[in-house]
Amino acid sequence: MRLARVLKHLFVPSWVAHRAFPAPTLRKIEQAIKASERAHTGELRFVVEASLPLHYVSRKRSSRRRAEDLFTHLKVWDTEHNTGVLLYVQLLSRHIEIVADRGIARRVPQGDWEGVCRAMERAFKAGDYERGALEAIGAVTRILAREFPASGARENELPDKPVVL
After folding, report:
1. Tens of pLDDT, residues 47-85
2. Beta strand 43-49 with 84-90: parallel, antiparallel or unpaired?
3. Contacts by 30-34 with C-beta closer than 8 Å and gap 24+?
4. Is the domain covering 2-164 a CATH 3.10.310.50 domain?
5. How far apart are CA 130 and CA 80, in angstroms?
6. Which one, of 119, 141, 143, 142, lies nearest residue 132 by Cα?
7. Domain boundaries, the chain
8. Res. 120: pLDDT tops 90
9. Which of 140, 67, 25, 134 is nearest to 76 (CA)?
C-alpha cells in the first residue's frame, strides 16, 4: 500500500492542478478573496496542489501536515491580529484542509471549518472545482465576518492570488 501511494503521488504532474483550476478560475478565486477581506479583518490564502511532495508521502505525512507546513511557509500565521486562514486543496488524495491562526481558532470551532471542507469536497466530487472553491470562500467569509467584522480601512497583509503547487 505504501509503495502504491508513493508511486501515485510521484507520477502525477503539477499541471493536473491547472486543469482543475485554470487561469480564469484562479482569477475568480483571487477576486473572491479580495472581496472577502473587505468584510472582515482576516487574511485568506488559497493553495491547490496536485500531489504531495515525495518526502511527505515516503514519511507517511498527512495532507493536514502539509497544510500546516504551508501555513508556516506562506506566513499565514504572520498577521497583525493572528487572523490568517489557509484553504488547502490536495487534489490527488482529495483532501481539503483549513488551517486557522490562533486568534481565529480561539473563537471558531473546528467543526465550522469541517463543514466548509465537506461542502467543498462534494462540489469537487461533482467536478465543479470553481463553484466549490468560491462557495468555500463565501462560507469562510461569513464565519470571519461574524467573528471578526471589518472596522474601516486596513492593510492587505497577505497576497490574494491563489498558489498552485
Report:
1. 999 877 766 665 667 788 899 999 999 999 999 889 999
2. parallel
3. 30/160, 30/161, 30/162, 32/133, 32/134, 32/137, 32/138, 33/137, 33/160, 33/162, 34/160
4. yes
5. 30
6. 119
7. 2-164
8. yes
9. 67
Which grid coordinates are listed for 142? Answer: 461569513
Q: What is the pLDDT of residue 136?
A: 98
Give the model's pLDDT for residue 1: 46
DSSP 65: H
List, in order, residues 6 or more apart from 117 with CB less than 8 Å away: 96, 97, 98, 136
Residues in CB range of 13: below 8 A, 6 or more apart: 50
Give the torsion sign (CA, 117, 48, 55, 76): negative
CB 141, CB 63: distance < 8 Å: no
Range with the largest mean pLDDT of 2-6, 50-54, 84-88: 84-88
The DSSP symbol for 149 reads B
C-alpha cell at 113: 471549518
